[in-house]
Amino acid sequence: xxxxxxxxxxxxxxxxxxxxGKRDTxxxxxxxxxxxxxxxxxxxxxxxxxxxxxxxTSDRLWLNGIEESIEKNKRLxxxxxxxxxxxxxxxxxxxxxxxxxxxxxHICSENNFPTAAGLASSASGYACLxxxxxxxxxLPLDASDLSIVARQGSGSACRSLFGxxxxxxxxxxxxxxxxxxxxxxxxxxxxxxxxxxxxxSDEKKGTSSTEGMQLTVKTSALLQHRIKEVVPxxxxxxxxxxxxxxxxxxxxxxxxxxxQFHAVCLDTYPPIFYMNDISRAIIRIITEYNKDGVxxxxxxxxxxxxxxxxxxxxxxxxxxxxxHFFPGATFDDSLGLLSKTSTLPPLPQNFDTRVSPVFAQxxxxxxxxxxxxxxxxxxxxxxxxxxxxxxxxxxxx
Length: 397
Ligand SMILES: Nc1ncnc2c1ncn2[C@@H]1O[C@H](COP(=O)(O)OP(=O)(O)OP(=O)(O)O)[C@@H](O)[C@H]1O
Ligand SMILES: C[C@@](O)(CCOP(=O)(O)OP(=O)(O)O)CC(=O)O
What we know:
- This protein has ten helices and 17 strands.
- By secondary structure, the chain is of the alpha+beta class.
- The protein folds into two domains: 4-186 and 377-384, Ribosomal Protein S5, domain 2 (2-Layer Sandwich), CATH 3.30.230.10; 193-371, Alpha-Beta Plaits, CATH 3.30.70.
- GO terms for molecular function: ATP binding; diphosphomevalonate decarboxylase activity.
- Belongs to the diphosphomevalonate decarboxylase family.
- This is Diphosphomevalonate decarboxylase.
């Protein structure tokens, strides 16, 4: 019997102009446009296998080796409904196609990094789900079309359908058909731009993005100013900075936008705090590092972890600075940063180390060096699939 199956991976993305707020919570339509950098799947990714079979009696989902309910997950149901409807349309037009739209499916997905810890697992997770469904169903859609479906899983997921530099255009229409991701520039446009992720906490966060942003929409006057006055201009400036590979401008806008996002969280009533003492120390350290010219940019999502964007040539120095204040962090060196330098560079000569205390061993748990890279990838299911011959996970938690 023919096996209908697809296996794909998808990347995370870290926004430099943040999405925070929905004007429609069920279609997931945002109150402002946003822009992100897609990070390499060599370091962080979701991997998903989906099989359709006449032998299956119900739709089932395993996430990181644990079975989860599909019916209770309205967002996942929406992604399935949309992609099945599109498959049904193409089956209607071409009778020779196998009838996959009516078959039950088994979905097995794994993240190679902590889920729901503010490392954008919902972004890579839903991008991967929708991309794998589109492969299974052979949907004739481009990445922007697919982003409209992935957006309904998690807003930020729509940007993970593309590699490189990606805008999510907020759109205006009530049905969401113009609220989609577009690529501003591919990853090859600015290969010099790299990122360092500082994992301050890998625990599940207190206030989810979904709940937090709607409380902000309801209570923050500052958010209205951000939506109307700040983001439209900032989007234009950010796109120009990326096109011109103007790092100081890119960095300034990135840090200002992260600061404003956390300011609207503080302006929420009751306030939401995502950054902690370590996050704030990282801000002070990068500010000191930048005092004679902008060499690095920090940004924080809905959690304490920092992402630092910088040109490749500064990365060893940034790692040396971070290691000084945060001893004992494990370093994921898959880009070979340390093999290129036999010893770490010294701290910059005029760096004032009094900007922050030296923190206890392991306060920053892990530092991950990565770079901008491409969008979802298709894998060979026979070799890389997550389901066994019976259609059950090869690995359970
Ligand atoms: N591989 C996956 N496949 C399908 N769904 C996933 C996958 N990974 C995560 N999710 C969904 O995303 C949820 C986690 O999203 P959440 O927004 O809470 O955390 P996060 O994405 O890590 O943080 P943030 O988006 O704020 O950076 C999970 O509970 C699950 O429903
Ligand atoms: C701070 C952010 O990371 C918020 C991401 O929010 P989500 O995309 O996780 O929210 P939902 O659409 O409710 O699933 C900023 C960003 O990625 O732009």
